[in-house]
Amino acid sequence: MKEREFWQLLEEVFGRGYGKSLARDQGLSRLGGMTAVEALAAGEQPRVVWNVLCDQMDVPDSRRWGDDHVAPPLPVGFSDR
Question: What Pfam families does the record tag this protein with (predicted)?
Answer without folding.
Answer: DUF3046
